[in-house]
């Protein structure tokens, strides 16, 4: 009887371990992190260290948050601090963890019709774009990047929406598609630096505005509440978060570079 009992206990342990090794989670995240190539770089490490397969749904931050609130996922990783804090305040996560940061930049063609190359004040640059009615491609998709862009127009005191369909063009698309649109029409756009570094179709475009403190771009990660969403894989989701904010995870984020340029900077505390 004892031998049989031990056999069943060991079998149960082995089955539990196998289940953990084959587990998977859904991470609602941004197109910018996907387009940057970061997930392709770090997720094999996550799998090797935790046994967890991470499936990323890459959409704009607004859509990612809505998906998370609809319980379509286990973890949320986005970059819109005000909305992230509201997500926690509304009980959809117990805690937000700093994970990494980079910055936003304005990119544009070599011809620089608004004459803004080298400016550090993003609001002044947008004012010049509006005054010259230079083409500007906006994501227009309620993403973190779109929210940042709207806040910069507001800081400039400009109602850019009034020029929608004229010099102000809304793509309703992700970051890569919006940069493509800007390049195609010879206009400006706001992008996160990581996507820009990894972007292939730059043509004669370059960064024209950078360095404004308002362009700071922090990313946060949250475990979706199992109280709001009972089907959340809490143990596996937290294991993924723990890996991201661990010394090893932070070192992996820091080591992800393209042509010697880091795309993200670790910020876990």
Characterize this entry briefly.
With 269 residues, this protein is α/β, with parallel strands linked by helices. 44% of the residues lie in helices and 24% in strands.
The CATH architecture of the largest domain can be given as 3-Layer(aba) Sandwich
N-end to C-end Cα span: 51 Å
Spans of at least 5 consecutive residues with low confidence: 1-20
CATH topology of the largest domain: D-Maltodextrin-Binding Protein, domain 2
User: Which CATH first-tier class of the largest domain would you pick?
Assistant: Alpha Beta
What does this structure look like?
The protein has helices at 2-21, 31-35, 38-50, 61-69, 81-89, 122-132, 144-156, 175-185, 193-198, 234-245, 247-255, and strands at residues 24-30, 53-59, 75-78, 93-108, 136-138, 168-170, 188-192, 206-209, 216-224, 257-258, 261-262, 265-266. The chain is of the alpha/beta class and 269 residues long. The chain folds into two domains: 2-101 and 218-266, 3-Layer(aba) Sandwich (D-Maltodextrin-Binding Protein, domain 2), CATH 3.40.190; 103-215, Periplasmic binding protein-like II (D-Maltodextrin-Binding Protein, domain 2, 3-Layer(aba) Sandwich). Strands 1, 2, 3, 4, 5, 6, 7, 8, 9 and 12 form a ten-stranded mixed beta sheet that branches. It has a two-stranded antiparallel ribbon with strand order 10-11. Strand 10 (257-258) and strand 11 form a beta hairpin. Helix 6 (122-132) packs across helix 7 and helix 10 packs across helix 11 (247-255). The protein is globular and about 55 Å long.
